[in-house]
Design brief:
Blueprint: H1 8-19, H2 29-47, E1 51-58, E2 65-67, E3 72-78, E4 81-82, E5 84-85, E6 103-107, E7 110-114, E8 122-128, H3 145-148, H4 151-162, H5 166-186
Parallel strand pairs: 5-6
Antiparallel strand pairs: 1-8, 2-7, 3-4, 3-8, 6-7
Helix pairs in contact: 1-2, 1-4, 2-4, 4-5
Length: about 200
C-alpha cells in the first residue's frame, strides 16, 4: 500500500472535509493555502523540522556579526572544523590562540564570532530554516512525513477562527499543540542534519 501523498491538493481536500465545505464558498483555496503554509512554518519553527546546510555565509573584516536567514543556527564550521558555541557573556573570557574564528554565539538572526574576524572567512552554517511555501497543487511540504498530518488541524483551526467559531478553533489548535509536542519529543531525534560531518579541532 502506497503512502498518502501530502501534496497541496490533497491537504486542501482534507481541510475542506474537516470544515464541511467541499467546494469553495466561504473559504477560498488561496486563504486555506495561506493557513496551510502557516502550519508548515509553525511546525518547522517549533521543532526545527526543516534543516539546511549553507556555505553562502562569510565574515566581514573587523565585523563580529554575520546575519543568517532561518529560525536558528545549530552549528558553525570554518575550514572544515566546528567552532565552539559560547554565550555573549563569555566574550573576552575564552582562550584565544590566533586570529582565525574559534567561537560563535547566536543573537537573534545573527551569529557573533570570537575573535573579531580580521579578514573574510567563509563559514558553513547548519540552520533550522524557513521551509518553502506550497503554491502549486502538486507541491509537497519539506517537513518530515510524520509531521504532515498536523497541517490539517492547524489550517482548519485558523479557518474556523476567521469564521468566529472560537471554541472549535481553540479545540483544534489544542490538538495540534499536543500532537506536535508528543511527536517532537517521542519520535523525532532532535539533532542537526549531518552531525557526523561536524568536525572538531
Amino acid at each position: 500500500m502506497a503512502a498518502y501523498s501530502y501534496k497541496l491538493s490533497n491537504i486542501l481536500l482534507t481541510v475542506r472535509a474537516m470544515l464541511r465545505e467541499t467546494t469553495a464558498s466561504f473559504w477560498s483555496d488561496a486563504i486555506l493555502t495561506i493557513y496551510i503554509n502557516e502550519a508548515i512554518r509553525t511546525i518547522a519553527q517549533r521543532v526545527g523540522a526543516y534543516r539546511t546546510i549553507s556555505t553562502a555565509y562569510s565574515t566581514a573584516a573587523l565585523t563580529r556579526t554575520v546575519a543568517f536567514s532561518g529560525y536558528k543556527c545549530l552549528a558553525v564550521e570554518y575550514n572544515n572544523k566546528a567552532l565552539i558555541k559560547i554565550t555573549p557573556l563569555q566574550l573576552g573570557h575564552v582562550r584565544l590562540d590566533g586570529i582565525l574564528p574559534k567561537y560563535w554565539f547566536e543573537y537573534g538572526n545573527y551569529i557573533g564570532i570570537e575573535p573579531i574576524p580580521a579578514d573574510i572567512y567563509p563559514l558553513t552554517m547548519y540552520l533550522a530554516s524557513i521551509p518553502p511555501a506550497l503554491s502549486g497543487v502538486n507541491d509537497v511540504p519539506v517537513i518530515p512525513y510524520s509531521l504532515c498530518g498536523l497541517i490539517t488541524p492547524f489550517a482548519a483551526s485558523r479557518a474556523l477562527e476567521q469564521d468566529n467559531k472560537k471554541d472549535v478553533a481553540t479545540e483544534l489548535m489544542g490538538m495540534f499543540d499536543n500532537d506536535l509536542e508528543f511527536l517532537s519529543q517521542a519520535l523525532l531525534p532532535n539533532i542537526p542534519n549531518g552531525i557526523e560531518d561536524v568536525r572538531f579541532s
